[in-house]
Each structure stands twice: as C-alpha cells, then as structure tokens.
Amino acid sequence: MFAGCPFKILEQPKFVYDGKWLKMREVRFRKSDSSSEQVWESVHRRTVPSSKPDGVDVLATLHKDGKKYFILIKQYRIPMAGMCLEFPAGLIDEGETVEAAGLRELKEETGYTATKVLSCTKGKQGLSPGLSDESVNFMIVEVDGNAPENKNPKQNLDDGEIIEVVLVECDRLLPYVELICTEVHVESMLYAFALGMNYAQHFL
C-alpha cells in the first residue's frame, strides 16, 4: 500500500468514517530516526479502483465565427460555500474510459459535442495530495461551434447540479480570471492554467 514510503507505518491504517461517497482514513507513522508518532488523516472516494483516476477535467476550445473560446462552467459548490469557476469535469464511471467520460461530461455539463480529442494525460494527477488521493486526467478537445450539433447546445444535468456555461476568449483568459476571482472561487487548476498561458506568452 505504501511502496517506497520513507516513514515507518506503526499500525494498519484504519477508516474512521465510511459514507456513501467518501471514506476517511487515519495512518499512524513516524520518521525512522524519531520516536515521535504522527497521525495523517486523509479522504478517499469510494467510486473507482485505485488503478485508475477518479475523474477527468476537460480543456475544451470552442471555434466559432472566426474566434476561439475556452468553454468553462460556473456552479455553486457547497464545500466552498460559494460559486466556483471551473473546467467541465466529472467522475469516470465503472468500465468507462477516460476519453469517453470526458466527452460525456462535456456534453452533459455544457451541451457541446467535441469535434476532436487532441490529447489526454497519462498516469494520475493528484488534486490535493496532502488531503486526499483523489486524482484526474486532463483531456484537451476542440469543439466546432458552427457544427449543427453545437448550434443550440442543451445541457443534461443531474438533479444536484445547477451549471452556467461561460465562454471566455482564449487570449483573455487570465484577465477574466483575475477580474472574476473577487466574486467567485476560481478552481486552482484553471487559475494555474491561465497563469501558465500568460507565462508562456511573455517569458518563454
């Protein structure tokens, strides 16, 4: 379970909470040269095997009428107690591939159908590794906004979802994020992506 761990695990990890969607685990450990016992509490999803990522985030570019937009979503997140600006994303169903999940989530949350899958990351990208083993892959897709299926996109949301689709011109992503971050919570991956684009444009 803890291959390559530099700490000494003092006892079998135990789950101290077991809910419908999440489990909370407690691990007691110490450094090999220390007698001081430490406790690490972590949160784990129940939905998928540990051999694959939990979910997929979709970086979708919409090409429409000669302009390019990032397709983003805005939704209320109860854990954050506020609105959040995010990439379209979702969990991978059992037996589903990362690519299939990404295309499905994009369609459900935004109504748009991807025209082309450009790339998908490998391995598992941790979201908050100090808190949880939750992980995702990132998929980059293009959407033809002039295609018939994307002329009038319609969402297919779950009962627990209220999602607003936000289109941001690609060359205005960072200014938009910096403007809106005082009004809504901006997903860290999205903010980092916007900063990375700006860095590449101005410093590389």
TrEMBL record:
Nudix hydrolase domain ranges (all copies): 53-197
SUPFAM superfamilies: Nudix
Keyword flag Hydrolase: yes
Pfam families: NUDIX (PF00293)
InterPro entries attached to this UniProt entry: Nudix_hydrolase, NUDIX_hydrolase-like_dom_sf, NUDIX_hydrolase_dom
Record's keyword annotation contains Cell membrane: no
Gene Ontology BP, a term: nucleoside phosphate metabolic process
Domain of life of the source: Eukaryota
Name of this protein: ADP-sugar pyrophosphatase, putative
Species of the source: Brugia malayi (Filarial nematode worm)
